[in-house]
Amino acid sequence: QVQLVESGGGLVQAGGSLRLSCAASGRTFRKYAMGWFRQAPGKEREFVAAINWSSSMTRNADAGKGRFTIYRDNAKNTVYLQMNSLKPEDTAVYYCAADSTAYRAMIPTSRELYIYWGQGTQVTVSS
């Protein structure tokens, strides 16, 4: 049994910053890749960023490149998403997810590869 709890969302003006946090419990956190996805009203859930189990690799979707940074603190069982230069198009519910497979040798970007999901945190960017 694994639980993921996101926090840090809120309302911010365009150009501002937010840092999302995802606290994990119930499994050996350090063995698994972690990812962030988002879903805007009327749209499919889309990949935002991911970090592999060893923190040696990260990947960002095109929409967040140059603006978003994913990192993790294994001592706290927490993964973060730092979002800078936010745009109204970033408005969505952001979800944290944990990989299904330990020590995966790639960075998973498909939601089908993730087995545990948080409840989501709302990010709203005003113009």
Description:
With 127 residues, this protein is mainly beta. 0% of the residues lie in helices and 49% in strands. The protein is built from no helices and 11 strands. Strands 2, 4, 5, 6, 9, 10 and 11 form a 7-stranded mixed β-sheet that branches. A 4-stranded antiparallel β-sheet has the order 1-3-8-7, with no helix packed on it. The radius of gyration is 14 Å and the shape is globular. The relative contact order is 0.31.
Distance between the termini: 40 Å
Give the integer mean of the pLDDT values.
97
The percent of residues in helical segments reads: under 10%
Structural class: mainly beta
List keywords for this structure.
about 130 residues, four-stranded antiparallel β-sheet, mainly beta, seven-stranded mixed β-sheet, single chain
Which helices and strands appear, and what pairs or packs with what?
Layout: E1 3-7, E2 10-13, E3 18-25, E4 34-39, E5 46-51, E6 58-60, E7 68-73, E8 78-83, E9 92-99, E10 114-117, E11 121-126
Parallel strand pairs: 2-11
Antiparallel strand pairs: 1-3, 3-8, 4-5, 4-9, 5-6, 7-8, 9-10, 9-11
